[in-house]
Amino acid sequence: MAKIIGFFETCNEVFVSGWIADETNPDQYMDIDIVIDNELVTNVTANLFRQDLLDANIGNGNYAFNVLIPKKFKDGIEHKVEVREAITGVLIPGNPKTFISKKLQASIDACDEKGIVGWAVDMSKPHVPVKLEVLIDGALVAKTVANIFRKDLLDAKLGNGNCAFHVRMPDKFWDGIEHSVTIHETVTKMALPSSPKKFQIGHKFVAKTDNRIKLEEVEILRRQLQELKKENEVLLLQLHKIQEELERYYLQEQKTDELRFQVVTLTQERDDLAELLKKVKYQFEHIIAILNIAK
Description:
Elements: E1 4-11, E2 15-22, E3 30-36, E4 39-46, E5 48-49, H1 51-55, E6 62-68, E7 78-85, E8 97-100, E9 104-112, E10 115-122, E11 130-136, E12 139-146, E13 148-149, H2 151-155, E14 162-167, E15 178-185, E16 197-200, H3 215-251, H4 257-293
Antiparallel strand pairs: 1-2, 2-6, 3-4, 3-7, 5-6, 7-8, 9-10, 10-14, 11-12, 11-15, 13-14, 15-16
Helix pairs in contact: 3-4
């Protein structure tokens, strides 16, 4: 006859855990029934290894169980959980236990170039901010806490109104392709009611290099453009003065070697200025093109 030892250790909105063994037959692993609110939810074999069981000289240590709570019980209501030995129906020590899951009310309000915006509140603990994970196309891109105040949420009696969130949209999703965002509660992995939400952001603020130009970068480019305009005006003035001097020397028919040397020098300065003006013009046109794309 089996001599059952074990303990029902943990019960929360995520999982139940513990261990069970037959002291008279340690090589035989035991099956257990998980019963929630008198409903048989699942049957598993308790055969997970735990070092503490081995250290306590309980067979080979492979007698633990860890079972996830089904999603339908994550409704903010208190539930009673029992762990029974499957054949005899005997409750192992630690029974019964209860849990109350988070009762999430939430919404993803927007997914666009301004960011991922929404709110989330656990109605079972409305004044405790909800921790969230943001996934785009199945990949984790951010972790956040819904703790931003919004008066409309307060007016709607959603906790104290401090339950909104705002996550910056990563640059790589500004590609004109449709994507899907899913947000779930960090501990339970419960998806927000409005998940998943699809979005598509075009190539606004995208330069030829396919890198988004941020607003502050546009402002910097505008300032650079103004500086280039001033520099261009100074260079043109210098070029005009040099051209006038050249014309005066040419009128004197280049009578001396000194005059010829001055003409050559001024000609070189004129050519250098002309080349510099070309570079300024190129920078000017390049910035204008970028700013036009950013409109």
